[in-house]
Design brief:
Elements: E1 3-5, E2 8-10, H1 13-21, H2 25-29, H3 36-52, H4 56-70
Antiparallel strand pairs: 1-2
């Protein structure tokens, strides 16, 4: 199944979020190893975008809900079985 945002095809979850937001996902989530100054600049840009587009969060939530409703298999999660931890018995006494 193909998912389109406007005329652009979203191939991955990151593509979907970027197309839905109209901005790179990294703007909202940050990147590993960013400096305090880079984080502050990124947060300022995010605040400016939200101030100019007050309906952006609501629109994104509606769009995400629609995708989830149309593709419930996206959340078919299979629990992983954790193997039992084996303890090794120690014998003897240290001298």
């Amino acid at each position: 199944m193909r998912t389109y945002i406007g005329h652009q095809q979203a191939i991955s979850a990151a593509d979907f979020a970027e197309l839905a937001l109209g901005t790179p996902v990294e703007l909202w989530l940050g990147v590993e190893g960013e400096s305090d100054e880079e984080r502050a600049a990124r947060e300022d840009a995010g605040r400016d975008i939200l101030a100019e587009n007050p309906d952006l969060p609501d629109g994104l939530i509606r769009m995400a809900a629609q995708v989830i409703e149309e593709n419930p298999d996206l959340f078919d999660v299979v629990p992983l079985v954790r193997p039992a931890r084996r303890r090794v018995a120690r014998r003897g006494v240290a001298a």
